[in-house]
Amino acid sequence: MKKDNLDDRKKKVLQAIVEEYINTAEPVSSGAISKGHGLDYSSATIRNDMAQLENIGFLDKPHTSSGRVPSAKGYRYYVHELLKEDNLSLEEIKYIQKKLKVKVNEIEDLTKAATTTLSEITHYTTVAVGPKSDKQIIEEIKFVSLGQRMLMVVIVTDTGLVKETIIKFDEDITDSQVDTLNNLFNTRLKGKPLSKIDKPMAEYIFSEVNYSVGIMKAIIEQINKIVDEEDNNIILEGAKNSFDLPEFKSMKVAKNFVNLLDAKDEMLQIFNSGDAEDINVYIGDDDDNSNLKDFSIITFKHTMGDKDLGTIGIIGPKRMDYAKVIAVMKYISKKINEDNNKKEGM
Amino acid sequence: MKKDNLDDRKKKVLQAIVEEYINTAEPVSSGAISKGHGLDYSSATIRNDMAQLENIGFLDKPHTSSGRVPSAKGYRYYVHELLKEDNLSLEEIKYIQKKLKVKVNEIEDLTKAATTTLSEITHYTTVAVGPKSDKQIIEEIKFVSLGQRMLMVVIVTDTGLVKETIIKFDEDITDSQVDTLNNLFNTRLKGKPLSKIDKPMAEYIFSEVNYSVGIMKAIIEQINKIVDEEDNNIILEGAKNSFDLPEFKSMKVAKNFVNLLDAKDEMLQIFNSGDAEDINVYIGDDDDNSNLKDFSIITFKHTMGDKDLGTIGIIGPKRMDYAKVIAVMKYISKKINEDNNKKEGM
DNA sequence: ATTTAGCAATCGAATATTAAGAGTGCTAAA
DNA sequence: TTTAGCACTCTTAATATTCGATTGCTAAAT
Predict the structure, then answer these.
(1) Residues B34-80: pLDDT tens digits?
(2) Which residue from A12, B72, B128, B210 has the least number of CB within 10 angstroms?
(3) Strand D closer than 7 Å to the CB of B160?
(4) A124-160 pLDDT, tens per residue?
(5) What is the largest CA-CA distance in chain B?
(6) What is the DSSP string of B177-211?
(7) How many Å lie between the alpha carbon of B44 and the closest alpha carbon of chain A?
(8) Distance (Å) from CA A246 to C1' D1?
(9) Angle at which helices B90-100 and B322-345 cross, to 10°
(10) Which residues from A are below 8 Å from B259, CB to CB?
C-alpha cells in the first residue's frame, strides 16, 4: 500500500500531532509542531504534510479552520510504527514491585494485584478476565459435605484456579454417596478441560448411580454454574478515574463508557482474542457505532509457562498515553511471568 | 415546631410540587398545579402558599423568576407525611414473584436476585451489603486439604453465609494437623460471632499447638481476610441505568455518583445504620458537600426470623419516585422474609 | 378573611450580532 | 523544496436583544 510509504518528515509530523493531542486533548495546529518534536520547518511546510496525511486518512479535521486530530488509522500507525518506548521512573518500578509482592494463594490474588496496580499507575480503568474454561484442565474435584443436606464442590484447575459452590438438598445425602461422587467425578473428569463439565457429561456420570432426581439436578445445576461464572467473570478496577478525563465532559462518551463496561460479551470477545506473548492494542473505529468507538483497549496475556492465566487490560480514550501504558504493561507482564515461573520451578 | 402545622391546602401544594417535579425534573410553577392534584384554586392563591412554603424551607427557587423545586427538607416532609402508597401493577407482582423463585443455596443467591429485580423494576441503581461480621454466628469451621500444601477453610454461619478461602503453604501439612485444626477452631469458635475470629483469637488458638510460624501466619492471615471481606462486601446492580437520568447531564452530578459508589465506607455506614423492620429513607442534604448531596438512598433490612441478613437498598436522585420505590421494596421485603421463614420452618 | 384578577417587574433562556483570532490553503517568491 | 504572505473560513467568546415564563404585590371580588 502506498500510504505506508511515509517519508521521514511526515512520520515525525504524525508522531508530533499524536503526542501533542495526547497531551492537550485539543486539535493540533501546524504552528504548534513546526518547531520542536524533532522538527524545524515553517508552519507552511508542516501544513502541506498535514494536508497529505489527511488525504490518506491519518488525520481528521474537526472543522475547516482548526487544527488536526489523529484518526483511528492515524493512531494505529502511530502505535505500530512510530511509538518509541517509554521508560518507567524509578518510583514507578519500586511501586510496582512492592504491590506485586503479594502472597499468592489463588491465581486471582495476583491478577487482582496486577490489575489494581496497573490502574493506579496509569489512572485508566483496568480489566481482567480469566482464562476460558476450555483452556483450564481439571486437577481435582472435591465434594465436601457441610452437614446432612449441604455439599460443597471444589474444583481445582491447573491454572491455580480454585472454584467452589454450595449445593443444598431437600433430602439427606450420606457419606458414602459423597465418596462415590468424589470417585466418579474424579475418574471421569480429572485431566479434562473445565468446559467438559457440562450437562451431558454430568448426566452421563449420574447414569452410573441411581441417586434421586433432586440430588442429581441440584449438583448438575450448580456445577454448571461454576463453569459459566468462570467464563463470564470480569474484574474491573478504577472505573471512576475515567470520569476525570476531558472527553468525559461529553455525556455521550460517558454513557458509551458505562455501556461498554456493562457489555460483558463485547468485552470478553476483545479480551479473549489477543495474541499471547504480546501486548495487543485495539483502537476504536471512528465510524463504528458500537460503544467502543471512542475508546482504545490494550491487553496482555498473563501466563505461567505456556499456560494461559487470563488477560489483563486497560480501557481508555483513544487519546491514551500509549507509550506509558505499554511500558507499564510490559513491565508488569514481565514481572508476573517471572514470579509465576519461579513458583512453577519450586 | 410551627412549620409542621401545614394547613391542608399547603400540604396538597407541597405534595403536588414534589410529584410534579419528580415527573418532569423541571421547576414547578404556580400555574402548573393550580388545577389538578386535588387542587382547584387560582395560581395567585397557590403562589401565596408557595411563598410561605419557601419561607419555612420546604421549597427552593433556582432563580427569582422561575418555579419552585423541593428542598431536602421538603422531600423529607413529603416522604414522611404526605406520601400515599403506590400499588404495584399485576405484571410487576408477577415479575417479582418469578424472579424471586430462585433456588437458594447461599443467602447471597437470594440477595442477588432481590437486588437485580429491584433494579430492573425501578431502573435505579441498587446495592446490597451483608450483615456485619459481629452479627453472624459461626456454625462451623472446616479445614479441607487440597493436596499436601494447600488448605481450604470453609466457614458456615447462622445467616446461611458460606465463605471460603484457600491457603497455600511452603511446607507440607499433614492430615493429623488438619484434624487438629478442625477440632481446635471448632471448639473455640463455634457459636461465637464471626468477628471474633481475629488475630488475637487465632494466636491464642495456635498457642496450644506448635506448628511452624509459616503455617500459622498463613492461616491467620487468610482467615482474617474472610472476615474483612465480609464486612466490606458490596453488591451493585444497574449502575448504568442512572446515566439515563436527566440530572446526569450535569457532569458534576455524574462524578459525584461514581465517587459515591466508590466510597465504600460512606456507603456501608448508611447501609448499616437503618432500623430493622422498616424502610429507611436518607435524603441528601442540600448544603452538604459530600458525594451524597444530590442523592437519596432507600434501604430495608433483609431478615430471617430475627436474624439480620443484610441490607438492600437503592440509590437515586433526590427527585426519586419514592412512592414506587417504597412500594416495590415493601413487596420484595415481604416476599423475601416470607420465603425465609418458610425455609426456616422446614 | 380569603381568594382572585390584573399587572408591572424580574430574570433566564434563546437568538442574533459582532468581533476577535486561530488556523488553513494557496500562490508566488526564495 | 521550502517558505513568506495573505485572503478566506470558521469557531469561539462576548454582547446585545428579544421573548416569555413566572413571580410578587395590590386592589377588587367573593
Answers:
(1) 998 999 999 999 999 999 999 999 999 999 889 999 999 999 999 99
(2) B210
(3) no
(4) 999 999 999 999 999 999 999 988 889 999 999 998 8
(5) 86
(6) HHHHHHHHHHHHHTTSBGGG-SHHHHHHHHTTS--
(7) 39
(8) 40
(9) 40
(10) 240
User: What contacts A112, CB < 8 A, 6 or more positions away?
Assistant: A128, A235
Q: Which nucleotide is nearest to A66 (CA to C1')?
A: C23
C-alpha grid cell, residue B104: 437458594
pLDDT the model gives residue B198 = 87
Average pLDDT over residues B132-157: 92
What would the mean pLDDT of B171-179 be, rounded to a whole number? Answer: 92
Q: Is the pLDDT of residue A70 over 50?
A: yes
Total length of chain B: 346
Measure B249 CA to nearest chain A CA, in Å. 6
pLDDT above 70 (res B345): no
Tell me if residue B280 falls in helix, strand or coil: strand
Q: Which of A104, A105, A119 is most worth mutating to test chain B (most B CB atoms within 10 A of its CB)?
A: A105
pLDDT in tens, A106-115: 888 899 999 9
Residue A342: pLDDT above 80?
no
**Mean of the pLDDT values across residues B216-237?**
92
CA distances from B296 to A243, B63, B270 (A): 21, 24, 11
Beta bridge mates, A315: A125, A297
Query: Over 90: is that where the pLDDT of B344 sits?
Result: no
CA atoms within 13 A on the CB side of B159: 27
Q: Which residue from A minimizes the CA distance to B249?
A: A251
B70 touches strand D (CB under 7 A): no
- Is the C-beta atom of B51 closer than 7 angstroms to strand D? yes
Alpha carbon distance B324, A106 (integer Å): 44
> Hey, are the CB atoms on B142 and A146 less than 8 Å from each other?
yes
Residue closest to sugar C1' of D2 by CA: A45
Contact at CB, B255 and A239, closer than 8 angstroms: no
**H-assigned helices in A126-212:** 175-189, 199-206
Chain B 13-32, CB < 7 Å to strand D:
27-32
pLDDT of residue B250: 86
Of A57-61, A224-228, B202-206, minimum mean pLDDT range: B202-206
Mean pLDDT of B203-225: 89
Phi, psi of A310 (to 5 degrees): 115, 180
Cell numbers of A235, please? 474484574
Q: Inform me whether the pLDDT recorded for A191 exceeds 80.
A: yes
SS3 content of chain A, % helix, strand, coil (to 5): 55, 20, 25
Residue A318 or residue A5, greater confidence: A318
Contacts of B240 in chain A (CB under 8 A): 258-259, 261-262
Residues of chain B contacting A239 with CB distance shorter than 8 Å? 258
Specify the nucleotide whose C1' lies closest to residue A43 (CA): D3
- Locate all alpha helices (DSSP H) within chain A, ordered by sequence: 8-24, 43-55, 72-77, 90-100, 107-122, 175-189, 199-206, 213-232, 251-262, 264-273, 322-345
Q: Do B166 and A162 touch (CB under 8 A)?
A: yes
- Are A146 and B162 in contact (CB < 8 Å)? yes
